[in-house]
Amino acid sequence: MPHFIDIIGPHYQDLLAKCEKRKISVNLDIQDLTVNIREVKRTNEFLNSEIKRALKNCGPGDKITLAEANDSQIIRISVKNSGRRTLTTEEKYALHEIGYEVRARFGYDTTISLVLNR
Predict the structure, then answer these.
(1) How far apart, in whole angstroms, are the C-alpha atoms of residue 58 and residue 97?
(2) I need a labelling partner for 47 at 20 to 30 A (CA). Which of 57, 72, 80, 91 fits?
(3) What's the longest Cα–Cα distance across the chain?
(4) Spatial CB neighbours of 20, under 8 Å, sequence gap ≥ 6
(5) Dihedrals phi, psi of 108, to nearest 5 degrees
(6) Residues 46-58: what's their mean pLDDT?
């Protein structure tokens, strides 16, 4: 079973290159890079789509954070951005329908999370 670092590494390197050109800050908030990930395909799909969404939403001076937190039962992987545009009600609903957690309010950061069972 691959570790989280094996999955996030390529996404992070690609994100760094794109953000450097656009003057967007990138942060990592990772609890455990060695946590085992069973749902590799789902994790990659989540990171691809939500990093793309964050890049679309952000401009110079904004910030994108890739995060991971876990406990004995779950692993939560999140993409957070400080872009000025918030998600529409329809976008939030669609994300909830595919099983993502969403925190998005006008004037605050947008955080979209994937929760995996250990």
Answers:
(1) 24
(2) 72
(3) 39
(4) none
(5) -125, 170
(6) 96
Query: How far apart are alpha carbons 46 and 4 in whole angstroms?
Result: 13
Q: Identify whether the C-beta of residue 110 lies closer than 8 Å to the C-beta of residue 91.
A: no
**Residue 32 contacts residue 72 (beta carbons within 8 Å):** no
Phi first, then psi, for residue 29 (nearest 5°) are -135, 75
Pure H helices in the chain: 4-22, 40-57, 89-97
Tell which residue, 83, 77, 74, 75, has the closest CA to residue 104: 83
Q: Cα 117 to the chain's mean position, in Å? A: 17
Residue indicated by tokens 């939500």 = 50
pLDDT at 1: 86
pLDDT digits (tens, 9 = 90+) for 78-118: 999 998 888 888 999 999 999 999 998 766 789 999 999 98
- Rounded-to-integer distance, Cα 78 and Cα 30, Å: 10
Tokens of 25: 């800050």
